[in-house]
Specification:
The protein is an all-beta fold. Helices cover 0% and strands 55% of the residues. It contains no helices and 22 strands. It starts with a strand and ends with a strand. The relative contact order is 0.19. GO terms for molecular function: metal ion binding.
Length: 237
Amino acid sequence: MNTILHKADTRGDANHGWLHSKHTFSFANYYNPERMNFGALRVLNDDRVSGNMGFGTHPHKDMEIISIPLEGDLKHKDNMGNETVIRSGDIQVMSAGTGVMHSEYNNNPDKEVKFLQIWVIPNQKNVSPRYDQITLNVADRENKLQQIVSPNPNDEGVWVNQDAWFNITNIESGKELKYPLNDPERNGVYVFVLKGDVTVNDQILNKRDGFGVWDTKELTIKADSNTELLLMEVPMD
């Protein structure tokens, strides 16, 4: 088993006033040659955006972009004709493929929106751009894993052009879960702690810590307090 630990306070910190972003991996003005990616997981940004502010229209190409709102409402608009709002409990995916333009704004004037923006390197380039958004039943993640991303259009959650599986869970203090990898020969899992304290394969983790594990078939997850956890299984090659 191989592991890598990224403590919360070692992330890149970009504070633009209206936007405060923490970068687990190199992004924009934050560059760390030892923090470029975890396999196909290229970007994990923990964003907070002030009321009525946001990202103006900008392009993306050949990337699977997943947005997970944590608090507040995020307004999305793109050149594929999609104009919508995503909220906590929703999952949004955009396959940029041959190219897409989009904007993201806080839909509220008086409170922050907090969300994760995640980029996964696709397993094929120049696909037709695609947008999808679903609302999950949050109760389905209580003390169990709720799949939110997979490679399969007919599976639970949204799908991406990569052999990647994401799960989210809320675990009560003292409870334990197992996560068997879908492809243990090829994949690793990056664990990101949204809330609480947890021990993963004997590694103690706290809020917003990241922990990558590969060359293993299974993770053992024990909640040391009430914990919210995101697991991202991606190819390591």
